[in-house]
Amino acid sequence: MLRDRLQTALKEAMKAKEAERLSTLRLINAAIKDREIALRGDAGAEEVGEAEILAILGKMVKQRQESARAYEEGGRLELAEKELAEVKVIEEFLPRQLSAAEVGEAITAAIAEAGATSIRDMGKVMAVLKGRYTGQMDFGAVGPMVKDRLS
Questions:
Q1: Are 89 and 77 in contact (CB under 8 A)?
Q2: Which of 43, 73, 91 is the last residue of a domain?
Q3: pTM over 0.70
Q4: pLDDT tens readout for residues 18-43
Q5: Burial annotation 27-52 (CB, 10 A radius, 16+ → b, else e)
Q6: Tens of pLDDT along 99-115?
Q7: Euclidean distance between CA atoms 84 and 30, whole angstroms
Q8: Domain hosting residue 130, numbered range
Q9: CA-to-CA distance for 39 and 25, rounded, in angstroms?
Q10: Ramachandran class of 135: left when φ > 0, alpha when ψ lies in -120 to 50, beta otherwise
């Protein structure tokens, strides 16, 4: 389970005294804990599931990539490198990203499965994709592709 892999990696980073890696792993754990606390207030759920953890990790990667881009534009290369190093650590726990061809096939299959015929069915298609491919594709980029296919 992903949660166990994270805990094992945290312990190994502590033993190996890898400060940067340890810091990133602690950030991941904090993000998961924050989400669990938010859920407790809603439906009384105790733990976030695997799919939710993948979504959190995906969001963390996206945030760091945007920050790195901003730092590079501002000439702060050392900060950009730090953000990109964190991305590498986080990506270790994400499933392999799908290639462009695989994303296209996944969209085609999701459209067929949802029985989508128009742009009004886009939500159904995205729900199928998110249920099956969380953490494996960038849904911000996939959305317009689905929209093009349904238009």
A1: no
A2: 91
A3: yes
A4: 999 999 999 999 999 998 888 877 66
A5: ebeebbeebeeeeeeeeeeeebeeeb
A6: 888 988 999 999 888 88
A7: 19
A8: 100-150
A9: 21
A10: left
